[in-house]
Specification:
Strands 2-1-10-5-6 form a five-stranded mixed sheet. Strands 3, 4, 7, 8 and 9 form a five-stranded antiparallel sheet that branches. The protein is built from eleven helices and 18 strands. The chain is of the alpha+beta class. Strand 13 and strand 14 form a beta hairpin. The protein binds ligand MTE and molybdenum atom (MO). The site of molybdenum atom has 7 residues, from loops.
Length: 525
């Protein structure tokens, strides 16, 4: 009896070690799904092994296991880790601290392995580290439960069988068994979820690269010559996708493959519509240049960009659904549940409000709403530009408040007229003489009619304006200034196509967009 029990204790310790390792790997897979497939310790350690393996071994592995050699490699890593984990479990039985340090050391090794990838960032160390910490916690708990079972046995053995062991040892053993089952479940669920999510990520990337964009039935008006002013420091007329500002509430990007996407148009309509991605691409497509701005952008701030969008005219779609006369709100919802309310009248008033599928000639980037987003010229993004849109409901503003409106932001928010000085900035080296003061101005759908610059509160000078393809894009401007040495304050203001000059009153972005004139302080030498 004693021998049997004596050997059962370390067996439980070894099992605790194995389960802790399983949980560590499982949680690491889950974290890796949000970071990058390559940051998974299994993948990362495997990659290091491949790097270090002698050529003959690599050749042998490929020749013997063929395409499965990566799988065999992962299994190899798992087997070695299992051995080490069981040993650490035994070790933890007597004194947990060195074993816990061992677990953390393994985690650190996994993190270092991930960081050796040339494409890695510091985030790549997270899966192994998070895995190690959860693994260590699970090991501590299981060892405590196992030891609880064992130490409670001992007095009864010494005292002799005054009560039947089956009854007295039951609850203790049960808690270890329960703990083990819990750990196994945690490992399985986190690992499974991690694999599922990273596969989905892979699926959405390949879905995006498989998209063939049709030609627009109505191409973008060709750019007039003189859309771009040749001034160093001027932003490009089209903001490249990679540097386009990004604002949203999501932690992990929604990953919706185009094949799985559908859009439901419902609510106060005569006919409900459901569209697939293919349905959308088969409709007449328009291509337009539209500047998008965020309501959170401070005066002079970076949350504005201009792109060429390809998509389906929203008004056509809504007309097909038949919008009831008393519906004043188009409530759109994204795959992650974010909501946005757009005035139905704005979408129907003839402007190029669209369901966009492409941005600057490529399918929408994942971060900018793949596969489909809304774009409405003239409105801030939070009331118009739903990314990953999957649902459009016709309703009433009085009835349905979208996400930001329930958090203190405005219900309706047309873009405010704004001008920004992009050059010179306080960081620029300004030499006395003729200095271009330049930047962009925007008042989407109303257009920019005039831009004026003044120095040190002096008289306003009208800036030269670039040409624009439509009133929906930003407009570059430049004013040449005879700069004299000293500290100077440059200011800009714009006037929109309706003759309204932007107000000098300074206001914060909340609730419907910042106001005030952008000011740049520069030192001229
Ligand atoms: N699904 C979803 N769509 C969204 C948002 C969001 O949080 N979730 N943010 C909006 C806001 S506030 C802005 S300014 C624009 C920004 O679009 P971009 O990230 O493509 O520049 O997206 C809008 N669409
Ligand atoms: Mo925004």
């Amino acid at each position: 009896m004693d021998d049997e029990r004596g050997s059962r204790r370390p067996a439980r310790a070894g099992l605790a070690g194995l389960l802790a390792a399983a949980v560590a790997l499982g949680t690491a897979e889950l974290v890796a799904a949000f970071v990058d497939r390559g940051s998974s310790p299994l993948v990362a350690v495997g990659a290091v092994v491949i790097d270090w393996a002698p050529t003959w071994l690599e050749q042998f592995a490929i020749a013997t296991f063929g395409a499965a050699n990566k799988l065999v490699l992962s299994l190899g890593v798992i087997v070695v880790l299992a051995g080490v984990a069981a040993a650490l479990g035994y070790r933890a039985w007597g004194r947990p601290v060195p074993a816990i340090l061992g677990v953390l050391l393994l985690g650190a090794a996994g993190a270092v392995a991930a960081l050796t990838d040339p494409g890695s960032t510091w985030l790549w160390s997270l899966p192994a580290l998070v895995g190690a910490v959860t693994g260590a916690a699970v090991l501590l708990v299981l060892i405590r439960l196992a030891r609880g079972t064992a130490t409670r046995h001992r007095p009864r053995e010494v005292a002799g069988a005054t009560s039947p062991p089956a009854v007295t040892t039951g609850p203790d053993r049960r808690s270890f068994v329960l703990g083990s089952v819990g750990a196994a479940a945690l490992a399985g669920v986190s690992g499974g979820a991690g694999r599922f999510l990273s596969e989905r990520r892979f699926a959405v990337a390949s879905s995006r690269s498989a998209v063939r964009l049709p030609r627009p039935d109505s191409p973008a008006p060709s750019l007039p010559t003189g859309t771009r002013l040749d001034v160093p420091g001027m932003p490009r007329f089209f903001t490249p996708n990679g540097s386009f500002y990004r604002v949203d509430t999501v932690l992990a990007l929604p990953r919706v493959p185009a094949e799985e996407w559908s859009l439901r148009v419902h609510g106060m309509v005569d006919r409900e519509l459901t569209l697939t991605y293919d349905d959308l691409l088969r409709r007449p497509l328009i291509e337009r240049d539209i500047t998008l701005a965020c309501v959170s952008n401070p005066v002079g701030g970076p949350y504005v960009g201009n792109a060429r969008w390809l998509g389906v005219r929203l008004a056509d779609l809504l007309r097909e659904a038949g919008v009831r006369a008393d519906a004043d709100e188009v409530l759109s919802r994204s795959a992650d549940g974010w909501t946005c309310g757009t005035p139905a009248a704005t979408i129907m008033d003839g402007r190029d409000a669209m369901l966009a599928v492409a941005m600057n000639g490529e399918p929408l980037p994942l971060a900018h709403g793949f596969p489909v987003r809304m774009v409405v010229p003239g409105l801030y993004g939070f009331v118009s530009a739903t990314k990953w849109v999957v649902d459009i409901e016709l309703t009433r503003f009085a009835r349905a408040k979208p996400y930001w409106a329930t958090r203190g932001w405005a219900l309706r928010a047309p873009v405010k007229t704004m001008a920004r000085i992009d050059t010179p900035t306080s960081a620029t080296d300004v030499r006395a003489g003729r200095v271009p003061v330049a930047g962009v101005a925007w008042a989407q759908h109303r257009g920019i009619d005039r831009v004026e610059v003044r120095v040190d509160g002096g008289p306003w000078h009208e800036a030269r304006k670039a040409k624009v393809p439509s009133a929906d894009t930003w407009r570059q401007w430049v004013h040449y200034w005879d700069a004299e040495p000293g500290e100077h304050e440059l200011q800009v203001r714009a006037t929109d196509g309706r003759g309204r000059t932007q107000t000098s009153r300074e206001n914060s972005p909340l609730p419907d967009g910042a106001t005030g004139w952008h000011t740049a302080s520069v030192t001229v030498t």
